[in-house]
Each structure stands twice: as C-alpha cells, then as structure tokens.
Specification:
Layout (H helix, E strand, L loop, with lengths): L1 H61 L1 H10 L18
C-alpha cells in the first residue's frame, strides 16, 4: 500500500513538473511572438511613412508644369513647330 502512494505522489509530481514546464514554454513562445509582432509593426509604420512620401513625390511630379519644366530644363526638349507636327487619324 505504501508503494502505491509513493508511485501516485511520483506520478502527480511528474504531471505537476510537466505542466509547469509547459506554462514556462508557452510564456516563452508568447514573448517571442509579441516581439515579432512589435518588429512587424515597426516595419509597417516605416512602410506607411515611405508610402506617404512616395505619394507626395508622385503628386509633385505629375503636376503638368513640373513635367514640362523637367522636360525643358533637364532633357532640353522643345515643342515642335506647327509644320513638324504630324496628325494620325485613328481607324
């Protein structure tokens, strides 16, 4: 009868230790996931900032006068004379 009690206590102790280790491991995984979530949120915030900057740059570049100014200043383009314009009729 005494051996039975010792075996029961040993079994309960093993279950208790196993559950304690499972709790520790799950908290460890939870912390790792939390850290990864924070890292991904920082990446997302940086991407949002970059997206906003690109949107502002696009708005600036698509303004007609800016495009024309860049064509004249940087590419040295000039508008063709009326004689040099060829009109193509669509089918």
């Amino acid at each position: 009868m005494m051996a039975w009690r010792v075996a029961l206590v040993g079994c309960l102790l093993a279950i208790w230790l196993g559950s304690a280790m499972a709790v520790i491991y799950s908290q460890y995984l939870s912390r790792l996931l939390f850290i990864e979530i924070q890292r991904q949120q920082k990446i997302l915030q940086r991407s949002d900032v970059e997206w906003g900057q690109l949107q502002r740059e696009l708005m600036t570049l698509t303004e007609q006068n800016q495009i024309e100014r860049n064509a004249v200043d940087k590419l040295k383009l000039v508008a063709p004379s009326r004689e040099n314009i060829i009109f193509v009729k669509p089918k």
